[in-house]
Amino acid sequence: MQLSSIGSRPNLASDAATALATSIRSGALQPGARLPSETELARQLGVSRPVVREAIAYLKADGIVETRRGLGLFVNQQDSLRLRRAEIAASEQSILQFLEFRLGLEVEAAQLASLRHTPENLEHMGAAEAALNAADDAGEDSSAHDLALHLAIATAAHNPLFLTVLQFVSSPLLNSIRSMRDKDRGEEANVAIRRADHAAILDRIRARDPAGAGEAMRKHIGESYRRYAAQLAAGGPMPAHPALQTKAK
Q1: How far is CA 205 from CA 26, 168, 216, in A?
Q2: Which of 20, 116, 120, 231 could pair covalently with 158 via S-S, beta carbons 3.0-4.6 A apart?
Q3: Where's the HTH gntR-type domain (predicted)?
Q4: Partner residues linked to 67 by β-bridges
Q5: Residue 109: exposed, middle, or buried by beta-carbon count in 10 A (0-12, 13-18, 19+)?
Q6: How far is residue 107's CA from residue 211's CA, in Å, rounded to a whole number?
Q7: Cα separation of 240 and 39, whole Å?
Q8: Is the CB of residue 14 less than 8 Å from the CB of residue 94?
Q9: Got the DSSP string for 220-232?
Q10: Lowest mean pLDDT across 24-33, 91-100, 194-203, 208-217
């Protein structure tokens, strides 16, 4: 196992945990393999042993490694999907990747919601939209309300897998929404765009227009993607998802 030094960063333990997890998942260490000593890990990462110990605590909490008394640290069998909030928060580029993931999931959910929604689903989505708009009007953090609206749309798809996946990633999803809100804090125009996007999505769902609902959701996620990407420092980002390279008409 060979790791690159992570140097000096604001959250060394979180970065060290991410570097270790990435190395393990790349196959550098197979399930059942023993990890190098704390001293060796600290040397390779370029951090102190206390930082390594804190990083190991993250990995234990996620079930990636385990301690065997008297033997040391070992890699667990990775037989279940795990996603830590820190893995989404680790870089701004990862938030763009998360938006691409949402595109593939939520466009389909919106289309199905337009075909399958019940009166109760419409009431739930409407209440979530109203709570979101009220929080924005009051200048409050509306991220949780935004998430609730998207979960309500997934529920209306009446395919439990859409809701299950969104709930599974709800913590990093909420984190990415908050990160984007922090980027455009004080920009009233962006609040207006989000509000219009949500209204358009729900309008097409109510009208039982699957093509329109899917396109409205695609436009909404695409606007977030383009706005956030434009705010990042230049550094040669990867090409955007084909559906996000041009503005929806």
Answers
A1: 41, 24, 10
A2: 116
A3: 10-78
A4: 73
A5: buried
A6: 10
A7: 41
A8: no
A9: HHHHHHHHHHHHS
A10: 91-100
Residues 6+ apart with CB under 8 A from 36: 1, 44
Over residues 112-170, the pLDDT tens digits come to 999 999 999 999 999 999 999 998 888 888 888 998 999 999 999 999 999 888 887 77
Q: If you count them, how many residues does the chain have?
A: 249
Q: What is the enclosing helix (H) or strand (E) of 151?
A: helix 143-156
Contact by Cβ (8 Å): 83, 167: no
DSSP secondary structure letters along 58-98: HHHHTTSEEEETTTEEEEPP--S----HHHHHT-HHHHHHH
* Percent of all residues in the chain with a pLDDT value above 90, rounded to a whole number: 33
How many whole angstroms separate alpha carbon 185 and alpha carbon 138? 14
Closest CA to 227 of 238, 217, 240: 240
Q: What are phi and psi of 114, to 5 degrees?
A: -65, -30
For residue 242, what is the DSSP state?
Answer: G
Mean per-residue pLDDT for 45-64?
A: 85
- CA 52, CA 246: separation in Å to the nearest integer? 44
Bridge partners (DSSP) listed for residue 65: 75
State how far the alpha carbon of 6 is from the alpha carbons of 18, 160, 213, in Å: 10, 40, 44
Q: For residue 239, what are the contacts with CB-CB under 8 A and spacing of at least 6?
A: 245
